Amino acid sequence: MTTFFHAWRRNQANRQAAEWLAERTEARVAAAEVPAEIRDDVRRLVDTLFEGADGEVEPALKELWDLLDDYPGLRERFARLRIVADALDFLNDRTDPHSTARPEAKPGRRPT
Fold first, then answer.
1. Residue 27 and residue 32: Cα distance in Å, rounded?
2. I need a labelling partner for 62 at 20 to 30 A (CA). Which of 11, 41, 43, 102 fits?
3. What distances in angstroms separate CA 87 from CA 1, 14, 112, one per listed residue?
4. What is the dihedral of CA 30, 32, 38, 43, to 10 degrees?
5. Could you read off the pLDDT of 24-83 as tens digits, one per residue?
């Protein structure tokens, strides 16, 4: 017999999975719409932000910004993506001496 808590928890897990899929889709659509000459690199960097190790976040974000330097509109669009915001939060929390987050914790990152 399913309890209310189990039903609620399953609903929360389903909602989180749907949000995660929507975030990945939004980021992949954005990567697909960049100019062809940087598209493969942008896709690789977005995948790194989603799937990479903690130590890969900062270099991937820096390389992404460098690639988008000549495209301010695209850079602005990518800055609004949740995965980029999560990466920035992670980097800020990691370097903020007042942060209560553990350095190895990666807020907003979800397992695949």
1. 9
2. 102
3. 41, 23, 16
4. 80
5. 999 999 999 999 999 999 999 999 999 999 999 999 999 999 999 999 999 999 999 999
Give the Cα separation of 44 and 12 in Å (integer).
30
Q: Both tokens of residue 87?
A: 């990466």
Instruction: Give the burial string for 25-58 (b: 16+ CB within 10 Å, else e).
Output: eebeebbeebeeebeeebbebbbbbbebeeeebe
Would you say the pTM of this structure is higher than 0.70? Answer: yes
Distance from the first to the final alpha carbon of the chain: 29
Which token pair is 80?
């609004």
Q: Where are the alpha helices (DSSP H) in the chain?
A: 4-32, 36-51, 54-67, 72-79, 82-95
Are residues 106 and 54 in contact, defined by beta-carbon separation less than 8 angstroms?
Answer: yes
Judge contact between 77 and 30, C-beta under 8 A: yes
